[in-house]
Design goal:
Helix content is 71%, strand content 7%. It folds into three domains: 140 residues, no CATH class; 50 residues, no CATH class; 150 residues, no CATH class. The protein contains 13 helices and five strands. It has a five-stranded mixed β-sheet with strand order 2-3-1-4-5, sandwiched between helices. Helix 2 runs antiparallel to helix 3, helix 10 packs antiparallel against helix 11 and helix 11 runs antiparallel to helix 12. With 377 residues, the protein is α/β, with parallel strands linked by helices. It comes from Natrialba chahannaoensis JCM 10990.
């Protein structure tokens, strides 16, 4: 038996006519097609239903074993719609009273509905696919879904959109000299905006921004201290940057000649390292607090603030040495202290964690032995 299967992935039939799906049989399918055509004559699924009826009548006139049915998905998205189509195909196959092997001819209105073909193929062999498209717009829908698929595929959009966006940014850069002229200004601005948009789509910045906002929202409503710690750390980073720039400016004012790059870097680090270290300690303490509240805290997590302090001590001493604010003895002592602080914290928390895990293991072993002894008695 050949099953002529008309696919309406977004359930226009159910939403616009109230028909319950799947619709099975020649007369019910014709009734559903007339109802949809009456409700929305411009809907392309009307063509799909009547094309299925046309194929059914043609095969039935040749005395072939044939049945026609309409299956629908929903408007919630591709995955949910595909699953619902699969469930309705199962219902149609279960309703067929025949001892013959069943194959199907899928009738769709374009590329979007054809995404469900693997779902149908997993349930029944497919003899063919008939796409019904209005002649006046034969390639319009296929072009639309091809472009949509390119924009949704991370690998494809990265290789196509990013180079295209960079090329569009070259044009406004070439017009910098004549930026005040109106035609060049308009074209350059338009090209730059389009280039930035394509690059952002190619990198998926919109999705990442949405994911970051969603994580921040969940953290806010969950009462996580990490969010507050990050806000405070950002403020400390800004203060550290300002402090580093002020230190660099004062060093340049006091210097008799031109300041070299190593001294400039040392001045920036010397003025900002305290603030940045405070930001690192703040974020690590916030993370430790959240891990403790969630019951997933491990002792080695407590190393984080000590590592931050160790690195800060080393950077402060090295930058002070380059600025002639400290001697070689202070540098050696700071390097030793920073190294020892990191090593001691690592060893201390490792020993504590091993002792506690060993004690917990002994307690569990003792409980098992007691349970075995009670069972023996």
């Amino acid at each position: 038996m050949l099953l002529v299967l008309c696919v309406d992935l977004d359930d226009d039939l159910g939403r616009k006519t109230g028909f319950s799906t799947p619709v099975i049989g020649r007369d019910p399918v014709e009734e559903a097609g007339v109802a949809l055509a009456t409700a929305d004559p411009e809907d392309s699924d009307v063509n799909v239903i009547f094309q299925g009826l046309h194929i059914y009548d043609d095969l039935d006139a040749r005395d072939e074993s044939v049945e026609v049915a309409v299956v629908t998905g929903n408007d919630e998205g591709d995955v949910n719609a595909n699953r619902e189509v699969g469930d309705e195909v199962d219902t149609v196959l279960a309703s067929l009273s025949t001892s013959e092997d069943v194959t199907t001819l899928v009738v769709t209105d374009g590329a979007q509905d054809e995404s469900v073909i693997p779902i149908i193929r997993s349930r029944v062999p497919i003899d063919g696919v008939r796409r019904v498209v209005v002649r006046q717009a034969q390639n319009l829908e296929s072009m639309y879904y091809t472009i949509k698929q390119v924009l949704d595929d991370p690998e494809t959009r990265g290789t196509i959109l990013i180079p295209l966006g960079i090329l569009l940014l070259i044009y406004p850069l070439a017009l910098i000299g004549s930026a005040l002229e109106m035609p060049g200004f308009v074209l350059g601005t338009t090209s730059a905006l389009l280039g930035f948009y394509l690059i952002s789509r190619g990198l998926g910045l919109g999705e990442r921004l949405d994911a970051a906002v969603e994580r921040a929202r969940r953290s806010l409503y969950a009462g996580r201290t990490t969010l507050l710690a990050y806000v405070v750390a950002a403020a400390l980073f800004v203060l550290g940057g300002v402090s580093g720039i002020n230190t660099l400016e004062s060093i340049q004012e006091d210097a008799a000649g031109e300041v070299g790059i190593p001294v400039m870097l040392a001045a920036l680090v010397y003025g900002s390292v305290q603030w940045i270290a405070a930001a690192g300690v703040t974020t690590s303490l916030g993370q430790i607090t959240d891990e403790y509240i969630a019951g997933t805290l491990e002792w080695r997590y407590l190393n984080a603030p000590f590592y931050v302090l160790s690195i800060a001590i080393v950077l402060y001493a090295v930058s002070a040495f380059f600025l002639d604010e400290a001697g070689i003895a202070f540098l050696a002592a700071a390097l030793t202290a920073g190294t020892l602080l990191g090593i001691v914290s690592t060893l201390a928390f490792a020993i504590v964690e091993s002792r506690l895990s060993g004690s917990a293991g002994d307690a569990e072993t003792e409980q098992e032995e007691r349970a075995k002894a009670d069972g023996a008695h």
